[in-house]
Amino acid sequence: MARSWWGWGNVEDAVTGSERAALTARVAALMPRADLTAHEAPALESLSVAAPRVAPPDTLAHLASQELGDRVSHGRGQAFRDVVRNLLGRVADVPDLVVRPGSEQEVADVLEWCAGAGIAVIPFGGGTSVVGGVEPRGLGDYAGVVSLDLGRLDRVLEVDRTSRAARIQAGMLGPALEAALRPEGLTLRHFPQSFEFSTLGGWLATRAGGHYVTVYTHIDDLVESMRVVTPSGISASRRLPGSGAGPSPDRMFLGSEGTLGVITEAWMRLQDRPRWRATASVLFDDYAAAVNATRVIAQSGLFPTNCRLLDPAEAFLNAATATSGGVLVLGFESADHPVDEPMRRALEICGDCGGKAPEAITSTDSSGNAVHEGAAGTWRSSFLRMPYQRDALAAQSMIVETFETACTWDRFEQLRATVLDAAQGAFATLGITGVVTCRFTHVYPDGPAPYFGVYAAGTWGRTVEQWDEIKAAVSEALASTGATITHHHAVGRDHRPWYDRQRPEPFARALQATKTALDPAHILNPGVLIDPAPRGAARR
Amino acid sequence: MARSWWGWGNVEDAVTGSERAALTARVAALMPRADLTAHEAPALESLSVAAPRVAPPDTLAHLASQELGDRVSHGRGQAFRDVVRNLLGRVADVPDLVVRPGSEQEVADVLEWCAGAGIAVIPFGGGTSVVGGVEPRGLGDYAGVVSLDLGRLDRVLEVDRTSRAARIQAGMLGPALEAALRPEGLTLRHFPQSFEFSTLGGWLATRAGGHYVTVYTHIDDLVESMRVVTPSGISASRRLPGSGAGPSPDRMFLGSEGTLGVITEAWMRLQDRPRWRATASVLFDDYAAAVNATRVIAQSGLFPTNCRLLDPAEAFLNAATATSGGVLVLGFESADHPVDEPMRRALEICGDCGGKAPEAITSTDSSGNAVHEGAAGTWRSSFLRMPYQRDALAAQSMIVETFETACTWDRFEQLRATVLDAAQGAFATLGITGVVTCRFTHVYPDGPAPYFGVYAAGTWGRTVEQWDEIKAAVSEALASTGATITHHHAVGRDHRPWYDRQRPEPFARALQATKTALDPAHILNPGVLIDPAPRGAARR
Fold it and tell me: What PANTHER family does the record tag this protein with (chains A, B) (predicted)?
C-alpha cells in the first residue's frame, strides 16, 4: 500500500470505477446542475517548493529528510481545504525539514537545536489534522520550520494486564496499537474516523473523541500518565487511576496541540475486548421526538456504546434510509455480560418517544466481530469510506466537509436551526446549491455533540475560498449560540478566531504564561492556540 | 443548632452519654492500656489572639468581622490536628478579618483591596479542609490575612431541567443545595463525608471525590462551566457538555485550592433522583480474593454506585462484622430501570472469586429513601457519625485520623503492606499502640482509591506531634510506591512536601507562571500548592 501524497489514506483504496460512477450518479441526482468533471492531482515531481532554509547539525543529520515528498506530505493535514489545495498544486508552505527521532533523547536534542537556532518545530503524528494543526503557515519570522515526525516511536513498551493498562509510544498508529494489544485480549477501544492513519500522540494532543458515544470514549479519560518533552525539561506524571493533588498535570498537555511539549509516551487505560453486542436502528417520523428519545437514553445510565442520531438528510445520504424524522442507531457492548436487557430498555424509551419498532436487532455472543446489519451496518461501512469519497468528490468541484460542536440539550434545537440557516445563507451568497446533514457523534447526559456534513456544488478553483466562507458563517452560528468551536477536531490554526472568543480571557493569559515557562523560545507549533512570538521577542 | 467552635459539626450532635460510654468501652477493649480520660475544650472567651493588623476600607467595612469566634473558627479546618490544637487552646494563627461578600462584585472588590495592601486572602467555603487548606500559617510576610467566607453566595440561580443542570453559587452547603434541587426531582448526588458542612466551591477547589464509587462521582466530572474571580479579571467558561478546544480551562481551576482565583458559581450536571436500589454485602475469607473480586467488578462495566471493600480491621471496627477477608459492600441505583440484574451479576463475580452468599439483599423500588440493612446499613450510619466520634476520641488522647490515596491494581498489595508497615513502625518508634484499617472509597477500572483509618492510643498534649510523625511515615510509604498523596483530600499546606515530589517539575513551573499571570501580587492562599511570594518580590 502507498500513501497518497495529496489526499486521504492509501492510493490503492481511492474511489474508482463503479464506486465512483455510483457516487457521481447519486450526487448528480441531488444536484443536477453541478459540474462533476473529475480533476487530477498534479504529479508530485511537478511541484515547486523553496529550498530548505536550514540544515540539521551533524549529530541530527541522520534523522532529517528534505525529500520533496516528505516535505509536501508534512505541510498539510487532511481537511477538505488541504486536499483541494494539493489538487490545485498550491503547496507554498512546507516544512524545511522532516526530522524523525527514534528516542525521547533525540526529541530533546531536536528541540534544543531548534530553540537555539530560532527554528519552529511542528510535532507531527499521523498528519490527519483537519484544522491546520500541522501546517507551517505564517511562520516567516522563524529561521526555518522542522516537522517533527514521531512515527518511529511506534511500540507498546509494557502491558499491565491486572490494571488493564499499557505504556505506549506516541507515534503508534491505531491499527498497530490494537494489533499489539490483541494477544492480551485487550483494546484501547478508541476508534476515531482517522483511526487507520492517526497516532496516540495526536489523539492526546488534540483531545480526540473516539467512536463510542458514552463513558470511556474521549481520549482524556483513557490516560493514566504521560511523558512530555518540553524545551525546558521532561514532564512525567505519575501513573494513577485518579488523583486530587492539585490541578491535573495531564489535563494541561491534553489539548495543547504541540504548543507546550512533545508527547512521547503514555500509560493508557485499556478494556477487555467485547464479547456481547446488540445493535438496532429506530426510525422516527419526527426529528424533535428523535432528539428527545436520544436525550432520555443519554440520561438513563444505560451507557450505550452507540446512540447516534442521524437526521433525515444524514440518514438519506449516508445510510440510504428515507425517514421524516431520522434514524437512531443504537449499540451496546460488553466483555462481561449480555446486553439484551439495556437494549430492550433503550428501545422501550424509543417507543415511548414515538420511535418505530426496529427493522432488525442483531444480538451476538462471540469473541469475534459482530455482524452489522440494517441501517447500522450500512452507516458503518459508509463511515469508513467517507474520507475516500470526500476526496473523489473534492476532485469533482464538490465542497464536502464536516464541522462539529457540542452544546447542552436545551440549546440544541436553536443551534441546529441557526447553523442550517447560516449554511444556507452562505450557499445563497455564493450562488451555489448545498445540503447540510447532522448526526450526533457523542451524547452526554447534559447535551449532544452534533456533527454536521456539508455537501455543496462548488466552482473548480474556488472551492477552498467557498468553503472558507461557509465555515466562517457556521462558526459564527456556533459562537452565537454558545456552543464550542470544536468537540473533537481541535483548534489548530483554522479555529483560532472562534477559539479566542470562547476561552476565558484569564485562561488565555495563563496559557501564554505556561507557554513562556515551558517553551521560552516559543518554537513549538507557533500560531496554534497561541500567537507566534513577535520577531525576536521571546526567542533566544 | 449551634456550630462547634473547636470540632466537627453541631454542638448538639456531639457524642455524649451512652454513645460515648459505648465508644469508650470499645476502645478500652481494643487498647486496654490507653488513658481515655476525657478532656474539655477551653471556653472560646478564654482564648487570646493578637489584635487584627488590618482594617477594611469603609466601602467594605460592612462585610468584615473581627469577632473572636469568627476569627478562630476560620483559622482552622477539621483535621484531627486542627481539633486537637483547638482542644489544647493553641490558636495562634487566625485571620485578621473574616469578610463575607454578598456578590461577585464584592469578591472582586475585596481582592482589589487586598492586592493593593499586600494582604493574603484565604477563600473559605465550609472550612472542612483536613490538609491545612484554610489555615493562615507562615504568612508573616503579608500585611495581614483575610478569610474570604463565601457563605452568603448560597443560592441556586437557574435550573435547566432538560439538560439536567443548574447554576449554583459557590457558598452553598450540601443540604441546602440538595433541598433546592429536590422539587425538580434532581440531585447533584455528590455526598462527601463532609456533605453537611462543606460547600460547592470547596468541592470544586479541592477536587472532592463524592460518595459513589464509579462514574459521575468526582466533582471534576460534574462541572459544565465555572465563574472564577481572579485578581486580574473574571474567568467565565462556556456551558458545555464536552469540548476539545484546547486544554480545559475548568481543569485549571479544579484543584487550584484558592490559589488562582475565587470560584463564585458553576453550572453543575445533575441527575434524576434514584428510584430503584439494590444493596448487598459479601463476606470473604481471604483479603486478596476480596480485592480480586472488587477489581473484576470495577472492570466489568456494571457501574455499581457502591463497591466498597472494607478490610477485616475496618469491617470489625466500623461495621461490627468479624471476617478474615473483609466485607464488600455493593450497591446499585437507577432512576431509569431496575438494578437487580447488575447486582445479580456482581454477586456472581463475588461467588466466582470466593465470596460468601450475602446475608441479605435489599432491593427497593420507591421514590423515597432505601432501607439500609446488614453490614451496608451499619457501615453507613457509622460513616455519618465518624467525625463526631473522632472528636470524642481526640479529647480522650486517641489519635484518630484518616489518609487516602489511589494506585493502580498491580501495586495495591505492595502499597497496603508498605503503608501498614510504615504506620506500625511509627507506632513502635513512638511507643504507642495502634490499629490501621483500610477501605476503598472509589474504584476505577485501573485501580482503587484506598482510604486508611488510624486509631492509636496517644499521649495527651502530644497527639498532634505523634500524628505528624505517623503521617510523615505513611506519606513516605505512598510516595515510595508511586501512589498519589491524595485522591480527594486535596494538598493544602500539610501535603506540600509530597505533592512537590509528585507533580512533574515542568508542571510546577507552569503553575507558578499561571499564578503570576492571574494573581500578580500573590495574595491568594499563599503556601498552598505554591510557595508564598518572597517578601516584597511579587506583591505590588
Answer: ALKYLDIHYDROXYACETONEPHOSPHATE SYNTHASE, PEROXISOMAL
